[in-house]
Amino acid sequence: MRSHFNSRLGFIMAAAGSAIGLGNIWKFPFEVGESGGAAFIIVYLFFCFVLCFPILVSEIAIGRRAQRNAFGAFKVLGFPRWAVIGLLQVVVSLFILSFYNVVAGWSFGYFIEMLIGNFAIGEQFPQYVQNVPRIMVYSLLFMVVTGYIVAQGVSAGIEKYTKLLMPILILIILGLAGYALTLPGAKAGLTFYLVPDVSKITLDVIYNALGHAFFSLSLGLGGLMTYGSYLDQKANILSSAVAVTFMDVMIAFMAGFMLFPFVFSQGIATEGGVGLVFMALPKVFASLGSVWGIIIGGLFFLLLSFAALTSTVSILEVSVAYLRDEHRFSRVTAVVVSATVIFLLGIPSLLANGSSEFFTNFMNYGGVSVDFMTFISDLSSNTFLPLAGLLISLFVGYIWRPDQLIKELSSDGYQTIPIWVAVYLKIALRYICPVILSLIFLFTVLEKFFGVQVIG
C-alpha cells in the first residue's frame, strides 16, 4: 500500500519546502533590487501564475493519478514512451543534489563557525572551500540528516520534519528581518529593494524573471510529481498549488527585508550570490559585537541550512521513489543507495573550487573557462529542467490532454473546476508554456554553451 501525507497542510509544507531553497534567500532579493524593485516583482508574479502554475498543477495531478514515481507515472497512465521525461527528472535530481549538497555543507559549516565566533571565515572563504576534508565532513553530515528524514517515510519523515522546519524557517526570517530593520541604513536598503524603477525592466530582466519563476518552484525536477503521488483523492490540488506558489514567493520576498538592511548598514556592495553570503555577511555579523554577532550570524546560517534541507529532502525522494516503485527496494536501502551515489557524484564539485586544477578549469564553453560545479549546474538546472518542463507541457497539452487533467483536478469531491480555469489551463499548456519554455531552452543553450548573446 502506497504511503500518503496525513494532511493537506503536510503536503503544502513539503511541496513549499521543495521549492524554497538557498536561491530564495540570497538570489531572489538581489534580482528584485537590481531589476526594478516592485516592478520586477509584478513581472515575476505574472510568470509564476501564467507559466509556472499550469505546469506545477500538471506535475501534481500526474503524480496523484498514477500513484507512482516520476518515471513510472507515465507508464501507468498508458504512455510508456513518455517515461523518458521521468527518467530525465530522476537523473537531473541526482546531478542537482550532488552539487547542492556541497553548498549546503558550506552553509552548515558556516553555522558552526558563527557559533564559535569565527567571523573572519568570510575573508578565508577561498581557503575554506579548498579544505576538502572539512567540507566533505560537513556535506556528509548534511546528506546523513537528509537521508535520515527520507528514510523515516512520507508521513513520519518528510511530512513530520517539513511541518517542523518550515514554521521555524519563517520565524527565523521574520526575527532577523525585524532586527535588521532597526539597523542604521535599513531605510536605504528598503528603498533599493522596493521602490519601483520601470526603466530597469528590459528584455533581459524579463527573461531573468521568467527563468527564476520557473526554477524557484522546482518545476521539471520530479519532486512535485513524486509528492503528488502521495496525495489521496480528497486533496484539492488547485488550492494546494496556489498555497505552495504564494509561500515560495512570500518567503523569497521576505528575505529581502532581512538582507538589504544588513548590507546597507555596512555599506557593502549589493552583489548577490556566494560572494555576498559567504564573504561579506560575516563582516556584518562581526560588526554587531561578539554576542549579537554570534546570535544573528548563527541564526542566519541556520536559516540557510534549513532552507537547503527542505529542498534536499524532496530531491532525494525523487530517486528513492524511483528505486522503490520500479526496482522494489526497501525505503532504507533506496535511501542508502541514492545518497551514496549522490555523495560520490558530488566529489568533483567539492574539488572544483581550487582543490583540483582539472575540476576547477573543467571545461571551456562560450569562450569562458568554468569549473565542474558551474558546468553541472548549467547542464542540469539551466538546461535540463526547462527541457523537462517543456516536455511535460507538451505531454499534458497534446498526449494526456487537458480534459484528463481537468478530470483529475475535479475528482477531489469538493467542487467542479470553473470553466475559465479549465480554458486557461488548456491554452497555457498547449500554447503559452511550450512557446516560452522552448525559447528559454534555446536561449540558455546558445548563451551558456556557445557564447551567443541572445538577450540583452
What would you say this structure looks like, in words?
By secondary structure, this protein is an all-alpha fold. The chain has a single domain, classed as Hydantoin permease, CATH 1.10.4160.10. Helix content is 75%, strand content 1%. The chain has 21 helices and 2 strands. The chain has a two-stranded antiparallel sheet. The longest helix has 38 residues. 51% of the residues are buried.
The largest sheet, given as strand count, sense and whether it forms a barrel, is: 2 strands, antiparallel
CATH fold type: Hydantoin permease
CATH superfamily annotation:
Hydantoin permease
Radius of gyration using CA atoms only: 21 Å
Put simply, the count of helices is 21
User: How many β-strand stretches?
Assistant: 2
- Pick out the low-confidence regions: none
Return the structural class. Answer: mainly alpha
In the CATH hierarchy, what is the architecture at level 2?
Answer: Orthogonal Bundle
Can you tell me the number of structural domains? 1
Write the H/E string, N to C.
Answer: HHHHHHHHHHHHHHHHHHEEHHH
Distance between the termini: 52 Å
CATH class equals Mainly Alpha
State the assembly state of the protein chains: single chain
Overall helicity: over 70%
Q: In what order do the strands lie side by side in the largest sheet?
A: 1-2
Mean pLDDT: 91
Beta-strand level of the residues, as a percent range?
under 5%
Gross morphology is: globular
